[in-house]
Amino acid sequence: MIHGIGTDFVEVSRIEKILKKWGDRFLDRVYAHDEIEYCKNKAFPAIHFAARFAAKESFLKSLGIGLGMGVNLKEIEVSNNALGTPVLKINEKLGSILDNLGVIAIHMSMTHTREHAHAIVVLEKLGRMQRRGLGEKRRAYKRAE
Predict the structure, then answer these.
(1) Could you confirm whether 61 is annotated as catalytic?
(2) Which of 3, 56, 61, 118 is catalytic?
(3) How many domains does the chain have?
(4) What pTM was estimated for this model as a whole?
(5) How far apart are CA 145 and CA 132, in angstroms?
(6) Is residue 32 part of a domain?
(7) Is 112 a residue of the active site?
(8) Which of the residues 3, 56, 112, 118 is marked catalytic?
């Protein structure tokens, strides 16, 4: 069952301007150390910073909150798993929030061009029947007696 969906679309030029104006000050406020290293090692770092920014915003939207509502963007980290798939790493505080909401999985996808970056985050939680322990027992058909 879906708890929330968030999506964000970022203009890469906007991130480029912010990087030129604020540099490391911006990076240190928004991104984790590993994110900064990952993006800086790319041919066009602003594209990757923009995609990660979109993912962080998408996560907040999937929770039904926005910037300035108690969650620091640096608390949401985009990483890559062993297969190279982007995944969200969250801290203990956010983990507790998700646990309290009954969220069991975070699904995310990111994409970008030279001009734009886009991300979508879907929070999954157990349905009512699954929470009662009946999820796997319930069938879409009746058995013959």
Answers:
(1) yes
(2) 61
(3) 1
(4) 0.85
(5) 25
(6) yes
(7) yes
(8) 112
**For residue 137, is pLDDT > 60?**
no
* 55 against 142, higher pLDDT: 55
CA pair distance 67, 63, nearest whole angstrom: 11
For range 88-96, the mean pLDDT: 88
CA distances from 66 to 37, 49, 61, 106, 132 (A): 26, 19, 6, 17, 32
- Model confidence at 90, pLDDT cuts 50, 70, 90, reads confident
* Res 70: pLDDT: 72
CATH number, domain of 77, equals: 3.90.470.20
